[in-house]
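Obj: model holo form, ligand = S-adenosylmethionine.
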Amino acid sequence: MTASGYIHGFGAQEERRLWEQAGILAPVVFAGLPLPLRGSLLEIGCGVGAQLDQVGTRCPQVQLTGIDLSLTNLNAAQGFVPGSAASAARLLQADATALPFRDQSFDTAMTIWMLEHVNDPSAVLQEALRVLRPDGLLLCTEVDNATFRFLPELPAIQGWWDLFCVQQSEGGGDPFVGRKLRGLAQDLGCQEISTQELGIVSTELNPERRSELLAYLEELLMSGAESLLAEQQTAARGAESPLSVEGRLAQVRNEFAQAKADPSIGFEYLAVRLTCRPPNYSL
Ligand SMILES: C[S@@+](CC[C@H](N)C(=O)[O-])C[C@H]1O[C@@H](n2cnc3c(N)ncnc32)[C@H](O)[C@@H]1O
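Output (holo structure tokens):
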């Protein structure tokens, strides 16, 4: 099941953020990935269909299916997907831990930026493995929020990020799930397990890319603001700091402006990609 509080919230802003995020991070997410050229692919937690669009662009012959628990996101996908590379995708509402598909029905099963939001990632992976064919590929790309940092450290951004992670953990999610993927796959008996770190990193050589990534990170941090502001109403969390959430938010924005103006400020945020085969793997 999903963690109780989806930290990014729902609504038009989050739907647009997901769609844009997929495009901005695609060079990192899809670099060197052995995507299938044909067959069927299921994305578990497909949101607004943004990753299906990215896959569809790269693998036009693949039959795409996406499931998501959120009708809001699936309805938003109806606005984005037509006309996109994912226009032929089948989109269904379903819980990742109870997929409405027969055993061994897909060639590839994929999660991306999804397992951090559930309280039992192993149950999601187990269900993904159930619907994979014996020669199928499981592909998960997930965050490891412990790797996020600015160099030199920008204290308001770092403090906000830490709060963001605490809030997500308290809601039942796991912002550090990326570094656990290998262990999860091993425990489930998967074969040919491989993990790889994917870097969202600053570069002084490409100022445009640096600006794009900074704008993306700022939006990502801001996407937790509403939920943290709501939390402030109910908890005494504001007492932990002399500043209110609004005050901290203003400092975070100032530090992002500082980072945008100073190319010597570096940043790094690593994701982890798992690829593996099901326990009953056979070619
Ligand atoms: C951060 S979004 C990522 C969406 C998409 N993978 C992307 O990268 O654009 C996470 C998605 O997982 C979905 N989700 C969370 N828990 C789920 C569950 N138990 N079953 C199905 N979908 C779930 C949420 O509704 C949300 O759309």
